[in-house]
Amino acid sequence: MFHLMKMSTCQVRRVYTREQRSILEASFARQSHPDLNEKERLAKLLNCNLIQICNWFQNHRRRVRKQQQQMSTQAHSTMACQTFNYQNECSSYGLYQQSPSQYVGSLYVYPQETWENAMTYDPFVNYYT
């Protein structure tokens, strides 16, 4: 039933002109948290009330923060993708640079062994006995 109640002092959404937005954005560029005197000066200059100015600054700070987070996330995902591709290139290139003896468990490590013996070979048997 609460949603059916009408507010007696319903305000219409304020749409700022291009000139008003440029004034607000210039003020925001100087200081993102203006003091009360600056907000009152802007309210008189733009012919609106103090609450609208406070809301504009609060919303603009939120928008800027959101844009920065999106840019940071994009940069992070791009960097992660580039790092992943670089690691894949390095690891695939590195396979060709290693000597066959570094492939533990392969037939190249113990060429005298047959495939079945190489699969069951335990290098620590002679070490511990």
Automatic annotation (TrEMBL):
One cellular component term from this protein's GO annotations in UniProt: nucleus
Localisation per UniProt entry: Nucleus
SMART domains (alphabetical): HOX
Family annotation (PROSITE patterns): HOMEOBOX_2
DNA-binding region: 9-68
Lineage top rank: taxon: Eukaryota
Entry protein name: Homeobox domain-containing protein
Native source organism of the sequence: Adineta ricciae
